[in-house]
Structures are given as C-alpha cells and as structure tokens.
Amino acid sequence: MSLRTSLKKVLPSISVTEQEALDAGDVWLEGSIYQGKPDFDALRAVPEAKLSDEEQAFLDGPVAQLLDMIDETEIQSSNHLPDNILEFIKSNRFFSLIIPKQYGGLEFSPYANSTIVATIATKSTAVAVTVMVPNSLGPGELLMHYGTEEQRQHYLPKLAIGQDIPCFALTSPEAGSDAGGIPDQGIVTMGEYQGKQVLGLELTWDKRYITLAPIATVLGLAVKVKDPQGLLGGEEDLGITCALIPKDHPGVELGNRHNPMGIKFYNGTTRGQSVFVPMEFIIGGQKNIGRGWQMLVSCLGAGRGISLPALGCSTAHVALKSASEYAAVREQFGLSIGLFEGIQEKLADIAGKTYLQEAMRVLTTEGLGLGLKPSVVTAIAKYHMTELGRDVLNSAMDIQAGKAIQCGPQNTLAQGYLGQPVAITVEGANILTRNLMIFGQGVMRCHPHLQSMVESIHSNEKNADATFRGLLTKTIGYSVGNSLSAFTKGLLPFTAGAKSKLSEVRQYEKAVNKLSAKLAVYADFSLLVLGGKLKQAELLSARLGDVMSYLYAAMASIRYYEQKVSAEDRAQAAPYFHYATRWAIAQAENAISDFLANFPSGATRKFMRLITVTYSESSMRINDDLVRELAHQCQLNTKFKKQLTHLVHASNGDGHDINQQAYLAKLECLDMLAKIKKSLRKKEIKAGVRFAETLDNALVANVITADEYKMLVDYNVKRELAIRVDEFDFDMNLLKPEQAKLKQVS
User: Fold this and answer.
1) Which residues does the UniProt record annotate as the domain Acyl-CoA dehydrogenase C-terminal bacterial-type (predicted)?
2) pTM
C-alpha cells in the first residue's frame, strides 16, 4: 500500500463548501507570515491609503451634517430611526458608497468606506449599522460582481439613491455559523410568472437576524437548490444559490423585528412558503445556480474587513478621547485621577490598543484597496479588532465608573458598550472566527503545497501517485528549510534581519521575523503529527492562528509608525507605538507558550522547543515606565493624539463637546491651578468647601488676578458640567442641569 493510499484513509477530503471558500479569497501578507518569512518589502510597498478630495468633502459635508442631526437618546427612546435621519441617509447616497459611479453610486475606496462608517459609529451604532449593511455583504455587492448587466441597470441606480433598500438573508434558526447547512430550499420547477409558464424555483425559507429586513424593499436570499425532476439535465443537489426578490412579490414575508441589545437598527425576520420565482431572479441568472457560497465568501471582505473592524476602531477612538479627557479633569483626593497609577494602567492600555486598532484598520483597507480579497486577513481584522474594541471600552468604563453607567446624552460610552456585542457576533461569531477560520483557512491558503497535496491524495487521476511524491518532496524541503531558519534565528538572534530606516523599529522587525520562523515550524509539526485531527484540535490551531494574527498586527503597527507618523510627531507617537507593538509581540509569544505547553506529543514538544530554541520568554515586554509615559502622553492635547481620535466629532452640546470644553479649559489654567495649590500648601489661603469658594479666597488674597479668576471660574463651570451625569424626573423625563439644580434646592 502506497503512502498516498494510507493517507487517503486518514485525511479528510476538502468539502465542496470548503473548496469554494478557499478558491474565493486571496493570499496577502499573512502568507509570508505563515511561511516564516514576513514580507516587509511588500508591506512597505503597499500604496498609502488617503482620502480623495471627493471622499474628504463627503466627510466634511453630509457625514458632518448627519452627526449633528443624530440625537442618540431620542433614537434609543423610540421604536424606529427618525424619519429625517433615514431620509437624509437615502437622499445623500450613504447607501451607495461601494456602487460604481456609472450606476449612480459614489464608488469610494475601502479606506473611505471604513472611515465613514467608523465616524458615524462614534455617535450612533444604530445609524452606523443602517449605513454599513447596504455597503457590505448584500445585494449591491453581489450584483456588482455577479449580476447580469440587466440586473445591475435595474437595481443599482435605485439602491444608490435609497429608492430601494436591500437586505440579505442567509442565517436561519437551524444554521448560524454553519451557513453551508442552511435548510432553506429552492426546487427547480415550472410555474406561473406574469401570466406565463416559465422555468424557475419554488422557494421555502425561514430566516432571522436579517439587518434592514423590516424596511427592505428588495430581498437577497440564499437557499439550497435541488432539481428532483432533472429539468436542468444534471445532478439533483445543485448547491447554495443567491436570488434577489422584490418585497411585493407574492408570498414574501418581511416585517417582524428583533431587538438587538436595544440598539434601534432594523433587524428581523423573513419567511416564505412555496414562493415561485423565475430564473431571472437568480443573481447572475440561471448559470449561477450553485455558485452562491463562492459568491458569498468572495464578498465577505467588506463586512469582515471594513464594516465590523470599523465599529471596533470607532469604539477605541471614543474610549481614548473620553477616558483621557475625563481622567485629566476629574479630581479625587486633590489630584487628577489620571495621576493615579491604577488609572494610568487602564489609560495606557486604551491608548496603545487604539493605536493598534487604527494601524490595523488602515493596513487592512489598504489591502482591500489593492483589489484583493484576503479572506484570512479580513477574518483576523474582524476578530481581533472587535475584541480589542471590547477591551478598551471596558477599561474606559472602569475609569469613568459611575458616570459611565448612567444613560443620557452626556454618556459617551453607553451606546458603544451596548453595540459592541453586535460587531462581535455578526459575520461569523468571534469564537468561530478565531477557532476555525483564521488558522483553518490560513493553513490551507498559506502553505505553499498543502492544498495541492490534499487534492492529490484524494485524486483518482492516473498520475496521482507521481504528483503526490513530487509535492511531498517539496513539502519536506520546505519544512527542513523552516526548521533550519528557526534554529538559526533562535541560536543567533542577530541573523533575524531588519530593513527599517528607524532604529526604534528594527528591534520589532527582528522579533516578528524570529516569531514567524517559529510559527512555520510549529505549523509543519502540527500537520505532521496531528494530520486531519488538527481540524478538531481547535485550542491548538486557534493559538497558531493567534500567532499569525498578532504578527500581522505588529506589522501593521510598524507600517503605521513609519508611514503615518511625521518626523516631528515621532516623539509624541513613540510611546503609543512601543506599547502597541510590544503588546502584539507579547501576545504572539504567549500563544506560542500555550501551544507548546499543550501539544499532545511530549517528544515532539521537546524537539520543537529545541529546534526553535524556545525555552524562555522574550524580555520585550511592557514595563511600568512605558505605562506611565504613555498614560501621561495620552492626557496631553497633542497633534498625534488628535490623529488617534480623529473619528470622534464633538457636536455642539453633546457629551464629547462637554468633556472637551472642560478638558481644554483646564489645560489653559494649569499654571493658575498650580499657583492655587502652592498657596494652599503654604496655608496662604483657605480651602473652601467647594472649589468656587477656594477661587474666591485666592482672588481676595491676590494669589490670582481678576482675569485669571474669570478663566478659572469658566473652567470650574465646565468642569462641574463634565463630571455631572444626566438626571431624569420620576417619570424618566430628562432634566437640563439647571432644572436638576432647582429640584435639588426645592
């Protein structure tokens, strides 16, 4: 019995849905990371993402106007998005960000799409989700890539101006993460359409979690098509197929709503029982029957790589701006809370991870801007950026404490806190994305020979044995090369090269090269020892996926620092960069440590440690000095901090505006506040019960001038407003601060 025959019995073949998923995506930077040779030349050669004049004008115009219109408290206390918001979105073509100009769309870049969605999300998750869905996985994108020209001409202009509102129905009660297992069916049959007997599909479906379904006018639908009568002359099971059906088509049910976390975007159900549609309703026509899964996976890049990471990144921008300003203004025990090390630890983590979020957002959308559909990279971005969003938001909630849990217009964190689980759950729940998708797809897509080898093992062609032997020889050579590279870099660290022109970057570039070389070895041995069982060994494979993910994050951090940070801003940006890159590298090392500690074969584990010289952790860790430095830096009003919070727009009178006014007023008064504190220590003036009394005493004692007194009083008014929380009367009617004070007095 040949080796190929033996392996055929133990190695599972690639299923049709798996093969379609593998064929649909592109391999990008993650391929070089997996293979042990991170391609920093390719990284640095990626064209820089910039907004065009038209894209910037859209942000400065319609997006800014939309932000000023949004009253999140009103939205959350209502059942629907306000009509004026929805009409503004439609009339200003927010639904056409990805639609080509020839069909009336805006045709913006992935970077611009991400920036627009993220900017809106800082103000309202509900509005951001409403905007992002038509510009993500849905009828618009499917039509652009796979529709007939007649379908594009009919639908895209209407979608562009909001005349038609789309939704796409994939998830059913019986199949969530296992989208390939959907029970919804389409039976090939003859039926009546427009008074004629035509060939078509009889559809039966029951879908849930469908965003925009309650207000959609056109339904995208995924079903499994069968041809039991052989009307198409082929197999009975034809596979997943995507159709596009007008809402008013007989038998289509739309309207029932879910209530996702109380966030008032439209999400609900759609059902149909024995609904006949003609073949012309299939996206791309009859020839695309059975191609639905390939179409869907190919188009997932926007949702996974743009929209959902944008939600995570927007949360980080809000958390950094809100927490740093609050920490600078809020005082306890006579000190700003931002001076306490417990708060500094949280602040530094928010700041470093916000930098990493922005770096990953920019790099991922730059890759998509190249026309690539890197399925593994977009899965990395979706999982890690939404999880990082949750991390930084939790830290910001901890810092603001009581202020963060009181709902109302002044709370800048609550709507993001409620909305973050949405980003974590949709487009592949994060547990699935981490444990099955990132490394599961990565190992097949990124290994130079594995997919071809598995195909040759299960091949029935005459020359299959020869093909297998050739691929096996190449694979052995590849693995030996990986082992030698990892051993050399582990034993002689200086051999891990670095090409950066910046000395502070080179240490991290070398670290990425060394860890990537180790990853290649561990992946090879996992495949050798575990074989087909690696697919079920989710804990192990997820850790290898984590290594690849965090090295991608570290490369994004390096690229952002080299390209997006000007020379004069490097001193401001350095603490953010060092924290983010060290954190990513440390996480990769932790994943390696956990992988080795839990590898089932003791002998293999010892050999992997030996060959990669992995016996201790790197010293490249985040220390307390870096925490203190970054916490201090992020409380300053620097140009670089503004760059990392640029998504947040403070509208007149909203929570961000109130916090920002108090923060900027305090920065103007720092010298005066220092004089007052010095006088208090010397007992030259007496501290009042309230700060306003202390200011009066300082003026009388000539510690401050009349002009300084005026500035300090102005600051104190803004400070008091910033540290207040919203109050409501007994019937939960919102009170203005003046009304609340009057009620207290009475």
Assistant:
1) 444-728
2) 0.93
